[in-house]
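A note on notation is needed here, since sequence and fold are reported together in a single record. The reader may check this reading against the record printed directly beneath this paragraph.
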Amino acid sequence: MKRILIVMLVSVGMLIAGSTSAELIGSDSFDYADGAIVNQYDVDDGLGLTGGQGWDWDNLSQIHTGTVSDWDNAWGTAYIENQSLITDNGGALRQYNGPSEMWYEDPETDERIGAFRGEGSIYYGVTMTPLTDGGWFGMSGYDFPTERVFLGMPWQSGVFGVEESGVGNALSDIAVVFGQSYRLVSVIDFDGDQLRLWIDPDQYDYDNGAGDNTSDIQIDYFGTNWNTAVRLASGGKTQWDNLVVATDFGTAVPEPTTLALFSLGGLFLARRKK
C-alpha cells in the first residue's frame, strides 16, 4: 500500500530513535491525480496540492496546527504522474506549516512560524529515481526564498554529495546509476555544525550526531540561517516518491511498505554497518 500511515510512522520513528522528541513534520506519497503540481512559485494563492500527512508544524509552540502548507513550483517542470512527482529541469518545494509564505513578521506568516531558526536538526528522506542526466538532482533546504543546502548529485559530479550553496561541496565515491531507485536520507544538523547524507540506509545505519553516525558523506556546516522548506528538483527527468521531513533519523529512513515489519519486530536497531 503506497500511502504512509501517520500513526505507524511516528511510532516507528520513536522506536528507532529511542527518543520522545521524535516528530514527523510532514510526509507525502504524491497520491494525486496526474497534472501540474501547482502554479508558479511566489503565487501564494492556496492552489497548490496539500495532501500527505502533517505540513502543519508550529516550531515555536512545538504543536501541529491543523492548517497545512501547499506545494509551490520553484521553476520549470514539476508534475504528478502515476502517483509520483516528476521534475524535469525544474523543481517543487513545500513549507513546514500553513499556506501563508515568506518572512513577514507582521502579520507573522505560517512559513515563519514553522521555521527552524538556526538550531536543532531536520531530516529529509525521499525515494527517487534519476531517469535522464541533466547534470544534477537533489533535495534542498530553503531559508524562505533562498536555497542554503543541497543534498544529492551536485552539478556534473556523477556521484552523490552534499553542498552548502555558494560555498563548497563534499563528494562521496558512490556513483549515480541512472534508472536505478535510491532511498536518500539527509540531515541539516545546526547543533552539530554538519550536513550528512545516507544513500540506501539499512537496518545497521544510525545517527547519534556529528561524531557518531554511519552517513556516507558529510561536510561541515556553520550556517545560522533559518530552515523553512524542502525542495525536490533536477536538471534532467527525475521521479520522486515517499517524502518525509522529520526531527529524527528513524522516521525519515523507512519506506511505507517496510513500516509494519519494523513496528512488529523492532528490526531497525541502532547498529553499525558491517
Observations:
- The two ends are 31 Å apart (CA to CA).
